[in-house]
Amino acid sequence: MQKKVLAAVVGGLLAVPAMVYADSANVTISGRFAVGLESYKLSGLKPAAVTSLNNELRVSDQSSSLIFSGAEDLGGGMKAWFQIDERFAPDLGGLTATGNTQAGLSGGFGKLALGRADLHYQELSRYDATRAGSLQDIISDGPFSQVAGVSIANGTRTPNVLMWDSPDWSGVTARLAWSPNAAANEGSGVGTATNQNPSKGQSFNAVLRWSGGPMSAGASYWKQDAEGDPTGAALITGAAAAACVAPVTNPSKGCAVGSAGDQKSQRAWFGWSAAGLTVALGYDSSQIVVINNQPMIKRNAFIIPVNYTMGAEKLYFSLAKANKLSGGPAGLVTDKTDAQAYMFGWDHAFSKRTFAGAFYAKVDNKDNAAYDLFGLGASGATPTALGQDAAQIYLGVTHLF
Predict the structure, then answer these.
(1) With bands split at pLDDT 50, 70 and 90, how would you rate the model's confidence at 58?
(2) Residue 13: what pLDDT?
(3) Tell me, which fold does domain 40-60+107-400 have in CATH?
(4) Taking Cα atoms as reference points, which of 143, 85, 150 lies closest to residue 117?
(5) N or C: which end of the chain has fewer CB within 10 A?
């Protein structure tokens, strides 16, 4: 009995410093629980080896998160802060630090951050993100942010980021971000005959946003120089050379080696909100390299997101169009490389933190296109092949805490 009492006393004493630190650092626990039932279906053209395209039915996580954040007042208007964004999967289990995990300083100069952050691709999601929908329902993060199915700016958070967010200057905000390697492949620094500088590569993002009354607008620029400095054809031999036939007709499905992965992207948007209605228009012009030392493949895209709030109810609609490819390696097929995607849905707010709803999203690919809905890795859905369409029905619930 005495041993048990002593252990309890010692344990309590050891816990005191941790509690004191947590209080002084103002640590907060928050997050979201987002899960639903989805029905996903591929249709359209089938590769020779495919005998059927069947419905995929599953319970899917939609980026549920557990966030630990805190700040310490350093005086003079400056604070040290941190955020640990853990993602968990209630459908399959597991916990990974894949969210916006950062630390830095803030003050009158704005906010400095080191870590991992969403850059460029999600700038329009403020207009078409839903309260209870799936990741696949965010069309601005999906087909609108892809070139032939290749995601711009990773299509997720960028690692190795040094970032500055400005203060709010009468409705104007800015962001500058740099990463020595957005692919999280640090490189050895040791050159070889076919790759003189494997540590070469960096990414850059610059954003300017404005909001005033019912209107908002902005522009974002992204440039990625992929890791490595290959000498060219020496890396594309044997089986890899055979695989490189695929990008000529479908750049998204093969031959991403060496400097393949270079990207340039610029987008602009305008939004208007009043009386519960929000309407926006976005334009994106992006380029990618899929084969070493070959010209960039280009495409332009447009999106129109709309939502309307009526008390506890909210209605959503988004339509995006990706135009045909141009440029690229000799022999690139550009005919029927365009696609369109749309989403419509509804959700209900039971409170300020709990929502449920029903949504439908679809991407229609022409014969030589292979665009995908956003976040397929999170839901486990099968990516499209050339000429295939993808559709999802989703019934979901989200709780914020």
Answers:
(1) very high
(2) 35
(3) Porin (2.40.160)
(4) 85
(5) N
**Contact between residue 120 and residue 207 where contact means Cβ atoms under 8 Å apart:** yes
pLDDT of 8 reads 41
d(CA 358, CA 156): 24
In order of 136, 159, 277, 285, 392, the CA distances from 342 in angstroms are 11, 30, 18, 19, 11
How is the chain split into domains, by residue range? 40-60+107-400
Burial of residue 12, with CB atoms counted within 10 A of its CB: 0-12 exposed, 13-18 middle, 19 or more buried? exposed
150 token code pair? 């290749």
**DSSP track, 27-57:** -EEEEEEEEEEEEEEEEE---TT------EE
Look at the block and give the residue holding tokens 């990207």: 263
Q: Considering the chain, what is the average pLDDT of its residues? A: 85
Q: Nearest to residue 388, comparing CAs of 53, 19, 10? A: 53
Quote the pTM value. 0.85
CA 233 – CA 292 distance, rounded (Å): 7
Q: Using CA atoms, how far apart are residues 315 and 308, in angstroms rounded to an integer? A: 5
Q: Give the separation between CA 362 and CA 372, rounded to whole angstroms.
A: 9
Contact 158, 117 (CB under 8 A): yes
Tell me what pLDDT residue 92 has.
77
245-293 pLDDT, tens digit each: 444 444 444 443 334 678 999 999 999 999 999 999 999 999 988 766 6
The residue type found at 203 is S
Closest of 335, 342, 300 to residue 318, by C-alpha: 342
Instruction: Judge whether residue 34 has pLDDT over 90.
Output: yes
Rg of the chain in Å (alpha carbons): 23
Q: DSSP characters for 194-213?
A: SBS-TT--EEEEEEEEEEET
Give the C-alpha separation, 262 to 298, whole Å. Answer: 12
